[in-house]
Amino acid sequence: MTDKKEKSKENINSEENATGSNSIPEEDDAMFSCPNENKEMTARDWNRIGRDLMSAGAVEEALVAFNNGLALDPQSFDLLKNKADALSRSGQKDDSLKMYEDALEMYPDNAKLLCFAGFEVLESGDREKAISYFEKSVALEPDIALSWFGKGLAFGEMMEFEKAIECYDKTIEISPDFTKALIGKAISLSALGEYEQAILFFNRALELDPNDVEIWYYKALAYDALGDGANAVIGYEKILEEHPDFDDAWNNLGILKNAMGQFDDALIAFDRAIDINSEQADVWFNKGYTHAMLGDFESAVKAFEEAILIAPDFENAYMEAAFASVQMGKTDKALMLYEQVLTIQPSAEAWFGKGICHLAANDMKKAENAFEKAYEIDPRYKELVDAQMKKTGC
């Protein structure tokens, strides 16, 4: 079986989703605004309109409003920050980063601006520079939870999970209900193999947001890593109740069902994953493996061939297809598959399988040559070869 998938961390790694109720507020919160023909519009008015448009998802229109405001007040902190945010949300990442840098020239000691700029830099891939921004931010204002959180994200992306946890701890100390920080710490603990501790923090996050799919997903992965398949299944089934189109959850559920010997249920899960996204080679492979476990080698080969069509260098798919072909007595097909494996990555297992095929065809010379190649790569195959030769009376 292929390994279970970890869902993309896009949600936790984005400032917009990460901040939630923990975002840094602006000074002027107002109801939805619109231009007033009976009064002269100020920069603050345009900022309010732009923010309302951003909340409504009208990012391009918001940019117009922010530009109108900046024409009146080119050094407005809120307008500069909000325009940078709007540029980022509209996909103009380079322009957004430039806007933050320009704003920081005017406000080099603004902790909030350094925080937001840090997220933009982090998204650009420059983690060390992002950390420097977050560190400057907390040096100026130590109680900005979002800055500590961003620093934790950056360390997490750098696989420095102990440092990430320190930052998440600081975030949680300042803002105990910062859900994404609880998730970040739990994921970091999982990466360090501290699955039981990770589950405790996933549970804390679920108390705040019981329907968050991301939390349930990573919690299920943690239970799975502990070998607690029953609780992992509960997690995946909870996810699929709310989000039946979550293909990775179906795949992981299928793997667990397979491990539990519930092969029919596993096939149902893999089929659901394939119905959602048929271009996942690993799911086709897992389906083929399950058919093989049930002794349905013909269906197994078909599934492995689908995996190979999607991923032509999928070595294990060739190997399992070859093995299933041997079980059906189709040694010519198996031989062709083993030869394809050897063009991808010469392995003792492939040479041994090739030898078995030649042995079945009574071609002793080719069989012996293949077996020699196998134990040249891995001497442990010598015992397997001797046992096979003895079994066949050679």
TrEMBL record:
Residues 1-12 have a biased composition (Basic and acidic residues). Keywords: Repeat, TPR repeat. It holds the Pfam family TPR_CcmH_CycH. The keyword Repeat applies. SUPFAM superfamilies: TPR-like (SSF48452). TPR repeats lie at residues 43-76, 77-110, 111-144, 145-178, 179-212, 247-280, 281-314, 348-381. The keyword Repeat applies. Coiled coil: none annotated. Residues 1-34 are annotated as: Disordered. Gene3D superfamilies: Tetratricopeptide repeat domain. Residues 41-137 form the Cytochrome c-type biogenesis protein H TPR domain. It comes from the Archaea. InterPro entries: TPR-like_helical_dom_sf (IPR011990), TPR_CcmH_CycH (IPR056413), TPR_rpt (IPR019734), Ycf3/AcsC/BcsC/TPR_MFPF (IPR051685). This is Photosystem I assembly protein Ycf3. The gene is ycf3.
